[in-house]
Amino acid sequence: MANGQRTADYNAALASWRQDKQFTVDYTKGYLGLEYAYVLGLSGKGQTIGINDAGVVMSHPLFAGSGKISGLRTPIPSTYGNDGMVNPRRPWEIHGTHVAGTAAGNRMADGVMFGNAFGANILSATTNFSAGDFLWWRDQILDDVMVATAQENIPALANTGRVRIINNSWGSTATQPYTLTPSQARAAFQQTLDGFYDPVLKNDVLVVFSAGNGSGVHASIDAVTPLNDLRLRSNWLSVTNYLANGTAAASTSLCGQTATWCVSGPGSSVVSSAATYTIDGAAIRAKYTRAMYPGIYAATTLAQLQNAAVNAWLGVLNDYLNRREAAKASGRFFDEDAERTKVAQQAVGISLAYGARFVTPDPDGYTSRLAQILTIPGNVALVGRDFASSVLTQANAIITAELQRYITFTGPGYASLTGTSMAAPNISGFAALLMEYFPEYNTGLISDILVSSSKDLDTPGVDLRSGWGAPQMAVALRGPTALRDTREVTVASGTIDIWSNSITDARDRYSAEVLAGFPNDIGGLVKRGGGELILTAANSYSGPTRVEQGQLTVDGSLTRSAVTAVAGGIVAGNGTVATLTAGTGGIVSPGSTGAIGTLNVAGTATLASGSQLVADIGPSGTSDQLSARNIVLGGGTLTLRPVNRVPRYGDSYTILTASNGITGSFANATAFSAILYPELSYAAGRVTAAVGARPYASVVAATPVQTAYARLLDANRSAYANLRGTYDLLDLQDVGTIRGALEAIAPRAETTRRAIGTTATDNIARFYRDRLTAMTPDGFAGGTVAMIGKPLEFAANAIAAPGRPQTVSDTPTSMVRENMLPDNVLAYLAGGYVDGSGAAMPGTVGGRDPFDGFYIAGGVEARVSDTAALGFGLSYSDIDGDQRFGQSAKGELIQGTLYGRLGGTLGPALDAQFGAGVYQSSTRRQGNFVGTPFDLRARDNALTLSSEVGASYMKGSGAVRFGPRVAIRTSSIDFTPTGETGTGPALMYGRDRFLSVQGRAGLQVDATEGGFRPFAAAYFVHDFEGQPGYFNAGFAGGTRAQARFLTARQDSDWGEISAGIAYRSGRATVSLAADSTVGRDDVRNQSYRAGLKLAF
């Protein structure tokens, strides 16, 4: 809003500016539509405008603030204005101050007006024009001392590197008609520049010139300068003065042959800053009377007034010459000094009388014209150089003293002035706003945007009177409407510029008279910078469009321009272009960024070798498309870019269509991932891309887990619809992610499940082996019930032993209740703690897989004869594996065992056991699969069989027994096909059988002495069954294909040792025992037992 408040109501914001008192102080800002810039927050901030004029009163409040205004030092005498300030002999000078305020004066809360680019800074340069200054003519003309630097200030300002715009509200008024032909204009305004203005081009500065106040004649020579160096056209503006109603001000010069760089600005009754003063015109007229200057007072028009002043001055000079000649002829003394003073007084009188005739007296009077007449070379030859110099010196002193009497300075204020001098800074401020809005654009493009935004004022098109017309900010902010040349368009990375105007060749807008001089003004674009330029309208410029950097999005049309993308450039959009070529490194990307669309080519689209077509894709069948009459493929690259949806295996897209056919092919298609890639199909008028899949075997590492999964993934691609949850996650990953993801879902728990089964069956076999060893004729306690260990506690609590060695069976010795059964029958109830670890799945990290649990066994034993005993027991084992890497396994073994022994305490003996049961196992795998949580469970009921036949021979006495024992043991677990359930990449485990056939050979020793019973045993075990070390699994819901996953290999040879001691006192027996495997890796086990037996 104009009051500084923020609003989301765009129209309300516009209205607030249009109603602002400072905005409406005159018609200038409304004429140019500057409210459209101000609502966007534009103020010219960051821009510096050079004001090359008569100097600025820098103390004016419109120029307050650090850095707001500064001056340029020029090489002139110290008695003149410098550093951008006014000539000290002419303190009433307001022209430069007014111009500076119009272009960039501050916006103040209590101000009367503000400059068009009120946020811009000013660099002022003093021109030191001749107006009002008698000494200027003496120094500059007679003494040839440089005191005026108007033209020289332009390259000097440009060379500072600080300014983007240089405003020049001055110039020599031409007399030629504005209808001059190009050749006539070049002849009339010929200048030899010799690169004088090269700094303007080097520093890319916009030079703005007022056309002049010649009342309908051709623009002035300085405005016409580019006719002498056509390189300057893009950096030069000529400005006429038009009224609010769109007609030319009476005083303005017209564009003429500057038309292609000429606009018509507002320059009538313009209010701006000034050093205000009053001048006592009545007092001047009272002293310099009608009687003294009758012709001056009799004049009723400006022309008459000027003629009267000139005639009066010529009369003074002729009278001087006549008196001098008469004195010389008569020989009389001629007082030269007095005569010169008299002439000087007359010069002052004529000038002041002239100035006093205006409604607002002009202190400059006619000083400049009178001094000019005096310094004309022919006149100097008549009156003498010394005379002319003396008269000008004295006239300066006299008029300075006189004006001090008549002028009263009232401080900084505001004044209303008219002329092209006022129109030019309005346009300079306009340009500064555009440069702020388009900070990367060069001056040629800015000037094209400025001039082509104009509203026609006279005849349609660009004409010799008003040029392009009146610039309009609302149009300019939408980009150019015409281009005079091929323009570089730089858009900074990360930014977007939108041009919504229809753009034509400039020459298409020229009137016949203008076109005759500039028939080749056709437009083109070179897109640079990493940002995006969007063209939304129908564009008909015919020059080339070349995209060298960043992106050009054509959402409208380019009906006559040949579009080319080279290395670093992207052509995109939903519109239509005439022809399209993508060179090496160039990219064509139909549609808008992040949205699906079609780019149409009316003619031929050529994608050369090294080019790239980038097409956004959505759901299958939905994609960007390049559609042309003809398409030529030279071996570039196709890249499909997913938008708001990841590509899926089997998706298909039509990427290219051509009504007259497609020739050639792409050399490459960029893969989506390590697996998915576009498979291209070429037909006569189209190219389609289907999403294909490479084998996983080609990307995985040669590890057991990755190799197995790769086989499954490759063999199940035909079941993609059932396994999308797995494929859609994994297909899009890179090699490293795929490898890591597959290792993370290795079925480790399956190896643990098997180790638990082995431990459970081995532990129960050991339990009954121990029972068989104790079934000697002299040790049989018939009629009793034995409590071995604490079976009820283990069943209820599954207590873990402190320190938890790897396989522990806690089976304390018996607690006995006597006379509960027949003398030849014994019943028992036993329990213990099991702890162990199995070898981890081969190829995985993290060490061994620990587990622990408990078991309960109960049964009855009977002494059949003095040398024979039989038993039958039921057992339950529950072992849980630790959770490692998100995976765990559990096992429950329920088994019945029949066992017996034949033999005495000493001598030979045979023993046997046979068990059958069910191993109920379960696994759980949890984790994160490519960013998605998974939770998979499996449960199996497997038949278990176990048998052992042994033979022993014990020697010794009642105190010490020892002897060998040999045995054959077999055990098996028949795993059934088991599928995982839950979320994630579920496996179906195939049917498998664990089989062990062991040969066991060892030595047993025990002794009895005074209640103490030490015992020990050692075995060598050889397993005759060589297990393959793997299990088969496939994907649940997939094909019947399976892959081998490795498990820990079953050891072939190992040792087992055990030792313990028992002590019996009365009815109580305490025992301690330990056993351990030696040299076994697949399932290491150790057992520690402590027991108490009580007899009743």
From TrEMBL:
Gene3D superfamilies hit by this protein: Autotransporter beta-domain (2.40.128.130), Peptidase S8/S53 domain (3.40.50.200)
GO biological process, one term: proteolysis
Domain (Autotransporter): residue spans on this chain: 820-1096
Keyword list, A-Z: Hydrolase, Protease, Serine protease, Signal
Top-level taxon of the source organism: Bacteria
Family annotation (SUPFAM superfamilies): Autotransporter (SSF103515), Subtilisin-like (SSF52743)
Keyword flag DNA-binding: no
GO MF terms held by the record: serine-type endopeptidase activity
Catalytic residues identified in the record: 53, 95, 421
Cited InterPro entries: Autotransporte_beta, Autotransporte_beta_dom_sf, Autotrns_rpt, Peptidase_S8/S53_dom, Peptidase_S8/S53_dom_sf, Peptidase_S8_His-AS, Peptidase_S8_Ser-AS, Peptidase_S8_subtilisin-like
Keyword Hydrolase: yes
Family, similarity comment: Belongs to the peptidase S8 family.
Protein name as it appears in the record: S8 family serine peptidase
